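User: Fold this; tokens only.

Assistant: Input:
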Amino acid sequence: MCPTTEDGALSTPDYKTDFLQACLSANILTFGTYTLKSGRQSPYFFNAGSFQDADLLNAIATAYAHTIVDFLADNPHVPWPDVLFGPAYKGIPLACCALLELRRIDSAKWGKVKYSFNRKEKKDHGEGGGIVGAALRDANVFVIDDVVTAGTAMRETIEIVRREGGKVVGFVVAVDRMEKMPSANDDDDEPRPSAMGQIRKEYGIPTASIVTLDNLIDLLGGRGSKQDMERLQDYRRRYLASD
């Protein structure tokens, strides 16, 4: 749950600010001109693969864990997860380190929660199959991934869990770009939902993120360069989703 200021306004939780500051200091979150899969020119880029040392892993594990705790507290109708699932490849270490941090926060609640991930290619020898770790059959599964743009990977993950007999009860990512899904001509004047918004609508699965583009712009206010701020604000105005 988000804390409030003295005047009752919502304030950004410390774990979100700490996470963004870690991303900026380690150049995990960078600014420039980056071409996305959609063809859009983004003024920023988030690379979860750059969480390469223990301090950075601790930062992202802490952020994911507190995001999940807040999400479950705010959505009491969501079943308690049996399994944290990290889609291959970047989701694998994210699920592992987040589960360890959740156990540190509350071992009674999280000590017996399991984790698993998928193989890109199924094995036909040894234990075989396409899932490593906990079985998903009849399990309430909470998915952890890095970032969502078009939603293709989210849909693939949901279908993997369903094929294995599990049920996705929640989906959390590090960064919600808050941008509308691309269209054939990417008409900027046409209102469209974000990929996460579309997933919520299609599958009825609640989603969460550690931070959003709004959080990033708020943090950079007065700290980042004027040019970076203007480019982020222009991008948000141009591609802001309708949800």
